[in-house]
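re: that chain from earlier
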Amino acid sequence: MVFAKSVDDVVRTVSYAAAKGVPVVPRGAGSGVAGGAVAGDGSIVLDLSGLDRIVAVHADEAIAVVEPGVITADLDAAAAAQGLRYAPDPASAAISTIGGNIATNAGGLRCVKYGVTRDAVLALDAVLGDGTLVSTGRRTLKGVTGYDLTSLLVGSEGTLGVVVGATLRLSPQPVSTATASAFFATAEDAVAAVTALQRKGLRPSTAELLDQATLAAIDEANGGDLHTRGEVFLLLQTDGYGAEAELAVAEQVIRPLATSVETTTDPDTAVRLVATRRAALPAIERHGRVLIEDIAVPRSRLAETVTAVESIAAATGVRIFVFAHVGDGNLHPIVLADSAPAEQVDRAVAAIFEHAIAVGGTLTGEHGVGVLKRPWLAAELGDPVLELHRRIKAVFDPAGILNPGKAIS
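^ sequence. v structure.
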């Protein structure tokens, strides 16, 4: 274990490891769910949580300069003190680090409007696999000098470089937020409602879907009756100066398709409506160990995918719950790992991944490949593209020491 306290600690560690041929596994909070920070025998675990300074928040430029160990929610709070916010909001924001978010290109509830981590990263400082410290990107909002190495590093899961600093884009705090919750008889109706919103030109800041199994789990945990109101729950939020007007139009669009709709601009009522979505994972985890899967599909195939996951659960006997960032087609099938024999769980997980690829989707929308999804990489990328990834990896990490056995390495 190396507990880095400075950039020089990282440079020295990686340089030593490159010279000796020792694998280096970068680690932040360890909150990832694809095994990206798991170390094998003979590895150096490079803990970056001690590099935790918010170096600066520049309100006039709406940017922040941070070290990788900064907790995501802490950066958001520091930005809020100056009327700004850090828009990416993974569910793990209270414990996950910015460096880990960058490694996996983390998303969250607000990404349907504000984008994922990559959309907020302007520049990076990173230590390459030979110990070289490089700076990519720029502080300006526009710039096309050179290749976009910053975007390449984001989502690379520690296989191309160890991020030691980041310049991040901040967003204004919304002056107003409006919230709606709705229930639907089918997933098709819920997806049709969201599609209709988008075709209307509306841009919700949050669009979240929960399936019947998830609603039942929440009711079991909290003593409610959500699962009796419909097969699917949809949470919508709009924000900005036109939040209330935008939500009024959204209500007109979704009400003919829904079994019930509730809207509010009252913050306390909004907290109650949003609490349904935030209760989903804790309610499921009461039943045992979970595998939090993460696929994304074309939005037009989302309802079909929810149905497919239900069919996979029925065929394998594995309990699977689904919630989704429905606005961008990112689903989280939550597999109850101890609900069936291990071989059946493996079958169910494989079937979920195979379905995602078959409908033109992807193995991961925001959690990363890690060790979990490597067997399916070639099926999605194809051998020529996978080989191109490996050649790029060799340029950034000639000794092949950075997080081997993860993602494409």
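Residues 342-358 form the longest helix (17 residues).
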